Sequence to fold (87 residues):
Amino acid sequence: MAAETINMRTDTARKLKLQAAADLSDRSLTAFILSAADAAADEILADHQSTQMTAQFFDDFFDAMAPAPAPALTDAAERLPRVIRRG
Fold:
């Protein structure tokens, strides 16, 4: 994989804090920052790949999106219990 460059600017206090954390985790500053950025990116991308909703909301949404049944199908469904004989 080809290496790319990302340039960033920050204040001294933040750089010192990030460098201290990188040192404590035995990683370079670059590896530390990229690891944190990768984790945040994975979480954000995963959150946007699906939609969470309650069962009631889904039922309401589904009903709103479903077309009304054809009258012939409604009539046939109403006659169905009379047509089927058990036993």
